[in-house]
Specification:
Blueprint: E1 2-8, E2 11-18, E3 23-27, H1 38-44, E4 49-53, H2 77-86, E5 92-97, H3 99-110, E6 115-121, H4 128-135, H5 146-149, E7 167-170, E8 173-176
Parallel strand pairs: 3-4, 3-5, 5-6
Antiparallel strand pairs: 1-2, 2-4, 7-8
Length: 191
C-alpha cells in the first residue's frame, strides 16, 4: 500500500492507495483515519484502485482552512472534489463508514456526475425522502411476479436476483447484500 500527500488548495490530504482498476474512494468514521479502511482497501485492491483518505483534520491530513470551528459535513466536499481533480479521477465509487458514509452521501447528492456508485455502511440518520430522491429510477423493480407472491415457499420461489451483488434500500440507507439477494413482497428488503 502506497502512502502519499495530495495538495488540494492550502490543504494537504494524506491517502493510502493500492491496486489497479476503477477507483474506489474509502471514507473512514471520525475520529479515526484512513488506516481504518486498510482491510477493505487490501481486499478491493485485487480489482480496483482503492484510495483510503484521511479526511481533513484526521490522521495525517491538514485540518480544513480556517482552523477548527466545528466544520459542517458540507465543508468536506470541496476538498474531495479537489482530491479527485488532483488524482485525475473523473468519476469514482465511494464507500463510507459512519461519518464517512454521511460525507459520501452528501457528496453523491451534490456531485452526482463524480460518483459511479455510493455505498453507505452505518449511515446514521438518512431521511426516507433523501433515500427516495437518491435512488429514484436507479434500482430495477424487484417485486416478484404475482404467481410467486402466493408461493408456499418462505422465500417465494423465483424471487432471487442473480447479479453478483444487489443493493437493497432500507429506511436508514443503502446496504450491500451478498451474491443472491431475495426481494420480499414489496418491502425492498434483502434477506
Amino acid at each position: 500500500m502506497k502512502r502519499q500527500f495530495v495538495s488540494v488548495g492550502q490543504t494537504q490530504l494524506h491517502v493510502r492507495r493500492a491496486g489497479e482498476g476503477p477507483p474506489v474512494i474509502l471514507l473512514h468514521p471520525s475520529p479515526q483515519s484512513g488506516a481504518f479502511s486498510i482491510p477493505m482497501a487490501t481486499r478491493l485492491a485485487k480489482n480496483f484502485t482503492a484510495i483510503a483518505v484521511d479526511t481533513p483534520g484526521y490522521g495525517l491530513s491538514d485540518p480544513l482552512p480556517g482552523g477548527y470551528k466545528g466544520p459542517a459535513l458540507d465543508d468536506y466536499l470541496s476538498p474531495l472534489v479537489a482530491l479527485l481533480d488532483s488524482l485525475g479521477i473523473e468519476k469514482a465509487a465511494f464507500y463510507g463508514n459512519a461519518t464517512g458514509a454521511e460525507i459520501a452521501h452528501i457528496f453523491a447528492a451534490a456531485h452526482p456526475e463524480r460518483v459511479a456508485v455510493c455505498m453507505l455502511d452505518t449511515a446514521g440518520d438518512v431521511s426516507d425522502e433523501f433515500v427516495d430522491t437518491l435512488t429514484e429510477g436507479y434500482f430495477p423493480d424487484t417485486t416478484p411476479p404475482p404467481r410467486w407472491r402466493s408461493s408456499p415457499h418462505p422465500l417465494g420461489h423465483g424471487a432471487v436476483a442473480e447479479p453478483l451483488c444487489a443493493l437493497a434500500v432500507h429506511k436508514k440507507g443503502i446496504t450491500l447484500a451478498g451474491r443472491h439477494a431475495v426481494a420480499r413482497k414489496n418491502t425492498g428488503q434483502a434477506a
